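Query form — protein G-protein coupled receptors family 1 profile domain-containing protein

QUESTION: What is the three-dimensional structure of this chain?
INPUT:
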Amino acid sequence: IEIVYNLCPSTYIMSAVNDTNFQFTVFLLTGIPGKEDIYFWISVPFCLMYVISIVGNSVILFIIKTDPSLHEPMYILLSMLAITDLGLSITTIPTILAIFLFNSREISLDACFAQLFFIHLLQGMESSVLLLMAFDCFIAICNPLRYSSILTPPRLAKMGLLCVLRGVVTVLPLPFLLKRFQYCRVNVLSHSYCIYQEVMKMACADITVNNIYGVSTVLLNMGLDSLLIFLSYVMILKTVVMSHEECLRALNTCISHLYAVLLFYIPEIGLSVIHRFGNSSSHLLQFVLGYFYLLVPPLINPIVYSMKSKHLRARIIRVFIN
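ANSWER: The C-alpha cells for G-protein coupled receptors family 1 profile domain-containing protein are given below.
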C-alpha cells in the first residue's frame, strides 16, 4: 500500500497497488479541514458544551428522581429525554475532543461500528421520547379530564420500554450488515464520529441492501415519529382555536417540547438529504449540521425546559442555593 500525504495534513490519498483484497483496519475521522493550527482553541467550546450537557442533564435527572412532586408524566418523559441526551453526549464528544486536543483521528472498525450503533439507537430513542411527549401534550390539552388515568406511571414505563425495544430491533442489524464487507476505498470519514450512511459508502461491495435497510430504518423510526408528532400538533391547534384561555395556558407548556422537536428533526433531515443528494458545494453545511444535530440538542434541551418550567426551575434554584 502506498500512502501519499498532501500538503494539507488533514488530507490523505491512499491507493492500493495490485491488492484488491486489502482491508483497512482503521477509519480516519475528520475534524475541521484547514483549521489544524487552531484545534486547541476550537476544543474549548466543545469542552464547554460537553460539560454543560453532562451537568445539565444530570441535574435534571437528579432533581426529578429525588423530588416526589415531580413524579408526573411530563417530568418522567423529560427524564427519559435527559437520559438519551446524556447517552448522545457520552457517545460522540470524546472522539471529537480526541481530534481537537490530541490530533487522534484513528478509530478501529469495531469501535466505529459500536459508536454508530449507539448513535443511531439513541437517536431513535430520542425520536420516540419526543413522540411520547407530543402525546402527553395532546392528552393534556385535548382530553385533560382523563390525563391522569391515561398516562399512569406503569403505562409510561411500558411505553418507554417499547421505545427501547423498537430502537434495538431496528438498529442492531446495522453493524452486522457493515461487518460483512471489506473496506478498501479511501477510509477518511467526513465527520468526527461514525454514522451508518457514511461508513457503508467505504465498502468495496454492492451496498444496495444496506442502503434500502438504512432508509427503511429512518422512515420507520424518525419518519413515522415526525408524522405522528405533526398530526398531534394539528389536533392540539384545532382544540386551542376552538377553546378558551385554559387551553392557551396549557399550550404554553408545550412550547419547550416544540423547540426540542425542531432542534432534533431539522438538522437530522437536512444532513440525511445532504448525504444522499448533496454535492461538493454542500461540504461546509454538512460540517455545520454534523456537529449541530448531535451536540446542540443535549446542550439546549435542559436549558429550555428549565426556563419554561417554573416548577423545575424553582427546584434547581433551591438545590444550588441550599
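ADDITIONAL NOTE: The domain at 2-321 is CATH 1.20.1070.10 (Rhopdopsin 7-helix transmembrane proteins).
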